[in-house]
Structure formats: C-alpha cells, structure tokens
TrEMBL record:
Stated name of the protein: Bestrophin, RFP-TM, chloride channel-domain-containing protein
Keyword Transmembrane among record annotations: yes
Transmembrane segments: 37-55, 61-83
Region: Disordered, residue numbers: 173-193
Organism whose genome encodes this protein: Lophiotrema nucula
Localization per record: Membrane
GO MF terms, alphabetically ordered: chloride channel activity
PANTHER family linked: PTHR33281:SF16, UPF0187 PROTEIN YNEE (PTHR33281)
C-alpha cells in the first residue's frame, strides 16, 4: 500500500501539519521531544543510584531507608508538577486564543474596509488616492500580525526614527553601542533565517513583510513604542477618513474602533504571557523537590530491588523531569520550538486570505474581468 500523502489546501494550508507521522510517537526521541532537556538529570540520578547500590552491596552493611517515605514525598512532587503543567498549558492556550482574536479582528476590519470603500455614485469610480489609501490600510492590517509576532519574539522590526537624522557612518556607530543591547527589545532571532536583514547595523526581521509597510515608515521601538501599536494608529486614521468620506456611518465607525481596541487588548494579553514568567520561588522549590525525591528514591529501593533500582530510578526520573520539561517548553509559546504556537503558519494563512480579498477588490474597483467571484458586487 503506497504511503499516505497529505496535500495541504487553503484555508489553513500553512498552519496544518504537512505530512503524516511516519514514526510512532512512542518511538520518537527528536523533533518535538524534550529528551534533550532531561538527559543530563536522568543520567546523573542513574549514576548516583549505581553508587548507592555499590556502596550498599560492597562497603556499608545497609544504606536502605523505609520505602514508606516515598508516598508522602510523591504527593508533593505530583501536586507541584500538576500545578506547573496546568499553568504552562493555560499560558499556551491563552496565547493561541489571543492570536485567533487578533486574526479575527484583522479579517473583520479587512472585510469592512473593502466592502465600504465604494464611490458615492454607483456608476462612479474611486479616486487614485482612495484606492491607494484603502490598499495601504489593508496591507497595514496584515503587517500588524507580523509586527506582533516579531515583538513577542523580542526582535526589531524596522529602523528606529532616532537614527534618521544622522549620517550613515554615525547611524552604524550608534546602532552598535552597548546601550542598544540594554534596551527592552533584544535581538534573539537567528541570523541565518531567510527573513532577517541588517539595516544600520541592526539585525531586523522585516523582509517577510517589508512590502506591507508604508514607504518611509520609521519605528520608535528604541523609545519604547511597539510597532503593533504604531500601526493601529494608521488603522484608526483610516477609519476617521472613511467616516469623512461617508464610507462609514457613526455607529459603524464606532464598531470598527471596537475591533481595533479588541486587537490591541489581545496583543496586550500576549505581551503579559511573554513578560510574566513563572514565579522564581516556585521554580526553585520545584527543582529542589524533584532533586530531593530522586535522590531519596535509590535509598528506598536498594534493599528490595538491588541493581534493579538503577533502571527503576532512571524511569522515575525520566517521567518526572519529562513532565517538568514539557512545562518549560509551554511556558513561553511564542518562540521557534516545535511545541510552540505555529505563529508563522497561522499568520501566513491570514495573509493569504487578506491578499486574495484585496486582489478581488482591486479588480472590481478597476473594472477588470478578473473579479469572477462577484464578492464586491
């Protein structure tokens, strides 16, 4: 029987998994697994168990402890790991829902803008300025998605406005100052990725959506203003101009502003997830409890199991540290790990949808025959 081929189709072509799993998950030790995070502690606990068994059998008469101490310790370990994993997955799920809210707002605003952007007279046409203005704001809506993604990953988006008045040599020198590395936005994107670039000595991550931004747009990220909020100002300005052009009546313009506010609110909740780690006191105590439990376990099993205590401790350590490793992976769901939210694919799917709508609207506005769908009749 030939292998199953999964062909992605729109919508959700980029966010969906592109190929079936060829290796059962129980046999997978890479590509999404957390074994690289736990191999060191599991190995150390196994070696410690080997030492305990050796001393118990050859040096000391007995190192064993009553096995009844294990249940009391396991309750504490279980409660802490459950709390950690539930908290981490809640952050992951909330981040995914917020990304959906942002995408929904972009879809709603795009639909409303394109449907409302019509000439006052049914037989008339839009002016070139109105066409450019509408296309620009729709592209800005898509750029908001990319700007949110890059800000959550602590990456610069566009060159800062504070460098525009300096010569190229001075901009290059200032952009390499140590104070830049101390700014709230740190550069963590791998330099080898195709959509990164170097501008004025700063690594940026805007190549994938540079065509969506207005010409000459400069950022204020070095002064604390994120690009997503900066772009929403442009969107709000378009709503105001649309109201003056009588594209939107008062209640409709108010509802569009609500959509923009909802988008900003969802982004703010994503920022909260990104900038609020698990309390360090919990992390410290959890690490210490895991260490204590796995160090006591060899003494509680050596008398009953002998050398079999080594694989038993290894399995228990693998299980407990693996559960903790999953929580570590899900704590910040906006990165590049395979267990993080598929932000790249989700945003690319939304871009595909919006660009199709924009092309159909442009064809209709220009009176071309390509508008076969009749969406804007």
């Amino acid at each position: 029987m030939p292998p199953q081929i999964r062909r992605p189709t729109y919508p959700l072509a980029h966010a969906a998994r592109h190929k079936p799993r060829r290796i059962p998950l129980v046999l997978r030790f890479y590509k999404g697994a957390i074994h690289n995070l736990i191999i060191v502690p599991v190995t150390l606990h196994s070696l410690f168990t080997v030492l305990v068994v050796y001393l118990d059998r050859n040096v000391v008469s007995s190192l064993g402890l009553p096995p009844t101490i294990i249940p009391s310790l396991s309750i504490v370990v279980g409660l802490m790991l459950v709390f950690r994993n539930q908290t981490s997955y809640d952050r992951f799920w909330t981040g995914r829902n917020c990304l959906t809210t942002v995408g929904t707002c972009v879809r709603n605003l795009t639909r409303s803008f394109l449907v409302a952007a019509r000439p006052k007279d049914d037989g008339g046409t839009l002016t070139d300025e109105e066409m450019r203005d509408t296309e620009k704001v729709v592209r800005v809506l898509v750029a908001v998605l990319y700007a949110i993604k890059h800000n959550l990953r602590a990456e610069f988006n566009i060159p800062p406005a504070s460098l525009v008045h300096f010569s190229p040599q001075a901009r290059d020198h200032m952009s390499r100052r140590p104070s830049y590395s101390d700014s709230p936005i740190t550069i963590s994107r791998p330099a080898s990725r195709a959509d990164s670039s170097i501008e004025n000595g700063l690594e940026t991550a805007k190549d994938e959506y540079v065509s969506l931004l207005p010409d000459g747009l400069l950022g204020f990220e070095d002064q604390g203003l994120g690009l997503p909020l900066q772009l929403t100002v442009l969107i709000e300005g378009f709503i105001r101009r649309g109201f003056r052009r009588e594209w939107f009546h008062g209640p409709q313009a108010s509802q569009l502003t609500v959509q923009v506010n909802t988008l900003v609110d969802a982004y703010g909740r994503m920022e909260t997830i990104r900038s609020t780690p698990i309390p360090v006191a919990h992390l410290i105590h959890q690490k210490q409890v895991l260490l204590l439990f796995n160090c006591v376990l060899p003494f509680a099993t050596v008398d009953d199991f002998g050398w079999w205590a080594v694989p038993i401790v290894a399995i228990v350590a693998f299980t407990l540290y693996g559960i903790e490793g999953i929580g570590v992976q899900l704590e910040d769901p906006f990165g590049y790990d395979r267990n993080d939210i598929k932000m790249d694919g989700i945003i690319e799917d939304t871009r595909q949808e919006v660009m199709v709508l924009l092309e159909e609207w442009r064809a209709k506005a220009q009176g071309r025959s390509e508008d076969l769908g009749g969406m804007f009749d």
